[in-house]
Amino acid sequence: MADKKKPFNVDMAEQRIKRLFKLAEKAYKKRPDLADRYVEISRRISMRHRVGIPGELKRKVCKKCGSYLVAGENSRVRLDGKNVIITCLKCGAIKRYPYK
Ligand SMILES: [Zn+2]
């Protein structure tokens, strides 16, 4: 039973992370500070349970300042052929990932 518990926790952690990102998305317009808070909580869950934040959600968080990023609001998104370049307008951090 002991080894059955771990995948369950991991699954729970993933669900919670996804839920928090949904909440962040909803909260952003009215309460950007709350959105950042949700992201912070989800990062903590991810660390505690050693669960990675899913790739598509990771792109919505600034690695440097931890802000929840919304394109055209607090982040700038550009394409340079093969890559997507996201600039956090709060701290200026830039991240790139391959464009699919
Ligand atoms: Zn930032």
UniProtKB/TrEMBL annotation:
It catalyses: Endonucleolytic cleavage of RNA, removing 5'-extranucleotides from tRNA precursor. Binds 1 zinc ion per subunit. InterPro entries: RNP4, Rpr2/Snm1/Rpp21. Keywords: Cytoplasm, Endonuclease, Hydrolase, Metal-binding, Nuclease, tRNA processing, Zinc. Pfam families: Rpr2. Belongs to the eukaryotic/archaeal RNase P protein component 4 family. This is Ribonuclease P protein component 4. It comes from Methanocella conradii (strain DSM 24694 / JCM 17849 / CGMCC 1.5162 / HZ254). The gene is rnp4.
